[in-house]
Amino acid sequence: xxxxxxxxxxxxxxxxxxxxxxxxxxxxxxxxxxxxxxxxxxxxxxxxxxxxxxxxxxxxxxxxxxxxxxxxxxxxxxxxxxxxxxxxxxxxxxxxxxxxxxxxxxxxxxxxxxxxxxxxxxxxxxxxxxxxxxxxxxxxxxxxxxxxxxxxxxxxxxxxxxxxxxxxxxxxxxxxxxxxxxxxxxxxxxxxxxxxxxxxxxxxxxxxxxxxxxxxxxxxxxxxxxxxxxxxxxxxxxxxxxxxxxxxxxxxxxxxxxxxxxxxxxxxxxxxxxxxxxxxxxxxxxxxxxxxxxxxxxxxxxxxxxxxxxxxxxxxxxxxxxxxxxxxxxxxxxxxxxxxxxxxxxxxxxxxxxxxxxxxxxxxxxxxxxxxxxxxxxxxxxxxxxxxxxxxxxxxxxxxxxxxxxxxxxxxxxxxxxxxxxxxxxxx
Length: 428
Known about the structure:
Oligomer: single chain
Largest sheet: 6 strands, mixed
Number of strands: 35
Shape: elongated
Radius of gyration: 24 Å
Distance between the termini: 22 Å
């Protein structure tokens, strides 16, 4: 399934990286890491490279070289000290100009936009990683691409689990989270398709794990689901399903409980999900055809294309924004609601799906578009566009007004008989 949310976030990501680098620079000055000289330590097949803090009491392992010819690589044990300096930070340090991509601790490029997880054949033998208790900070993408890693225990001194920390660790079955964890990024464990067990100390003040689901205690929020669960019943009492909570889930069936009031951005975005049910007494969400919508404003919350990639946006839907989820697979053909009135931001973001071939607009008047970020195209592009015969001029003018006209594959008109035949064919 195409990760449609990555592309509309691309320019935002660049800005975040730039800000992160500037913040990192400020922090670096405070800690006064010496980037001019590095210390190293060799242990069997591994060579650890580290920066030293200004007071020479700490070090930051920013790179690990792996040489299989020099020893066994199955057990990677990071040192707690190098030359008498305590190891407190691990992960690659990007000191050059800001990049839209990152590297893992082995210096290998990680490009989630292109599904590149940082794997290299030299990492193939690493099945165990031991992180010393002295570590308090782990950089984003640190262990991405360790496809043979089976389990990991994160030291209790670590407070944040950052983006893509274990991205692509496809054989990772068990993760023990730190006792003092207070920040968890939803995609820290993305593409960990074998993940079965998630543990956290009962002493953790913010999080708890219930039946393979990571929850924020006081907010009654579900933020992550392990891959192993095939049926997920959102517990009664849960108020919020967090942003991208199902990003790593293997669930095929999801039951949303009566207490759920909020469903976050791309919360149920997952190609494995085939069936979603909502408790009858839920007052906030309902199902109409292939759509879940918010009762309060008729906003699309989840779209569920069929096996052929056909998606009919229910005429109940009046609003689209860029937070809805696509559950079950790629969209190839979409028929939009005739009552669609408003599109916010990248609300038509299935247009970024490379599998999309046809888009049918059914309303007599194009919807209002708002909150468009500079440089982005808010309308479906690189696809064949179909509009009602009596509204062709209006839609073409609409595309021109939004600077998207030149990016359309082709313009077509249709009548209701043709559309009905298409729907019958795609739903067989």
